[in-house]
Amino acid sequence: IVEYVKRVHEFVRKVYVFDVFVSEKLGAGKKSVGLRIMFQSDDRTLTDRDVDDIHKTIVKLIENRFGGKIRG
Questions:
Q1: I need a labelling partner for 3 at 20 to 30 A (CA). Which of 19, 24, 35, 36 fits?
Q2: C-alpha to C-alpha distance for 15 and 21, rounded to whole angstroms
């Protein structure tokens, strides 16, 4: 997942897994993975909109590629 997310957009600079949780409550063979993502541009300050758009793209791609979803 980390390598996949790193390639989503040029502004994604670093991706870290900060938590992995495994429990039968999640379902058989499922786990919860917490990611910390650093966004950065070399030539401008990113806006909230920039980061939100990239974040939405990352979530959709993870849903489609890995069957993941945001817990809430």
A1: 24
A2: 18
Q: What pTM value is reported for the model?
A: 0.85
In the numeric block, the tokens 């890995």 are attached to 66
SS (HEC) of the chain: CHHHHHCCCCCEEEEEEEEEEECHHHCCCCEEEEEEEEECCCCCCCCHHHHHHHHHHHHHHHHHHHCCCCCC
pLDDT tens-place string over residues 25-63: 888 888 999 999 999 999 999 999 999 999 999 999 999
